[in-house]
Amino acid sequence: MPTKQSIWRNTAFQRMVGADALSQFGTQVTLVALPLTALLTLEASPFQLGLLTAAEMAAFLLIGLPAGVWADRLRRRPILVAADAMRAVALLSIPLAAFAGVLSLAQLYVVALIVGVGTVFFDVAHMSFVPSIVDRDDLPRGIGTMETLRSGAWLAGPGLGGWLVQVFTAPVALLADAITYACSAVILSTIRADERPDSPQRRNLRAEVAEGLRYVLGHRVLRLIAMVGALNMLANGLWAVVQPLLLVRELDLGAGAYGLIVSATGVGGVVGGVLAPKIIDRYGNGGAMYGGAVLAGLFPLLVGFTADGWRVVLYPVGMALTVASAIVLNVGQGSYRQAVTPDHLRGRMNASMRFLMWSAMPVGGILGGLLAEQLSVWTLLWVACLATVVGHLPFIVSPWIRALRAEQP
Q: What is the pLDDT of residue 7?
């Protein structure tokens, strides 16, 4: 168990924050550079762009559940280190292939899949590892700090990514993410924590996977969180396709401007990450989840009115407000999940949640690619906006979610 101390005097937490900051910063560079590698370097079609999004998220569907079992069986820090190292090597192959003149869409799909596998193991172990170094009472603050860092990276990373693409080309820009993953792996390897893996008397993989799923699906709050997450990840798959098509192809923005607009949406994430612990302290986890859902279901409508000229600004403003609201919701549900789940089930709970939620994103990516071949980008933009609105409705209409506290079952 973590010792009772100020969260910022916790050396293990400090190092994890540093590693997370590097990793998240590089990830946001890739958020810009990978689709632009497909669009600008390899001239991918809308459907091929959708397939790239699906490849990035397919690992959540393919191995999401077994990853949770391994996160409960093994110490989680080594999993984090190995996942970062895997992603660094995979991304490094893209600039090397581009330099050799052999880069192809097929390689992008393979790299996206490998990076996705690393992300699955990292995310499941990451969320399960935090309670090993942070006291339970500090979980909202700790998770809020992580979300603020994620949003800070969102604020700076895409802008840098766009600049790197414009100056050095998109494949070379991915080198920055490979470096940050490698540095994160080194820092994480220095963390010492009192981890207690599951009992060595293990059952078969299927039984352990089923136990995690039963826990989530049998818990009314976790079941509702999974539903909201799945609907929103489906919408996010649509956004992954419509965003570069709208900003780069339809509005004819350069890579630098594209990166700056994506970065601007990170302002909302920083604000949301700072406010979330305070909102949870005052209104409880349920209040944060409900209020975040209401606002995150309204602000996407502003994004739908994006157009040429001054109305381009509606995109980053609307997205920033949406992200701020979503971060409050995410910190509320994330801290609730970690607090109510027994340690020996936490890895499988997080894996089950990721599987149930994130498996919808490759579906959204393929759907977005198919729709982009048939509809105008403007129509697809409104489809993505309305899908986000619908994704938050289960929390909004729930009669009991507002009064929920972290200690409730």
A: 64
Higher-pLDDT residue of 8, 25: 25
- Round to whole Å and give the CA distance between 74 and 245: 42
Nearest to 408 by CA among 279, 233, 277, 289: 289
325 Cβ neighbours under 8 A, 6+ residues apart? 268, 272, 291, 292, 293, 294, 295, 296, 299
Please answer whether residues 158 and 29 qualify as being in contact, where contact means their C-beta atoms are separated by less than 8 angstroms: yes
Write out pLDDT tens, residues 241-266.
Answer: 999 999 988 998 888 888 888 888 87
Q: Are 12 and 73 in contact (CB under 8 A)?
A: no
Distances (CA, A) of 297 to 75, 120, 392, 395: 38, 27, 6, 10
DSSP-assigned letters across all residues of 243-265: HHIIIIIIS---HHHHHHHHHHT
In this structure, which long-range contacts are made by residues 244-248, counting pairs with CB atoms below 8 Å and at least 24 apart in sequence?
Answer: 244/35, 244/36, 244/39, 244/49, 245/46, 245/49, 245/372, 245/377, 245/380, 246/306, 246/315, 246/377, 246/381, 247/315, 248/36, 248/39, 248/40
Contact 332, 291 (CB under 8 A): no
Token duo for residue 150: 């994620």
Residues 196-213 pLDDT 10s: 655 545 567 777 778 888
Q: Please give the C-alpha separations between residue 66 and each of 40, 79, 108, 252, 349, in angstroms, as whole numbers.
A: 36, 13, 25, 43, 11
Structure tokens at 373: 């071949």
- Is residue 22 a contact partner of residue 180, using CB atoms and an 8 Å limit? yes
Kindly provide the b/e burial profile for residues 66-103, where b requires at least 16 CB atoms within 10 angstroms of the residue's own CB: bbbbbbbbeebbebbbbbbbbbbbbbbbbbebbeeeeb
DSSP letter assigned to residue 199: P
Residue 177 in tokens: 């993410």
**What is this structure's pTM?**
0.74
Rounded CA separation 236/280 (Å):
25
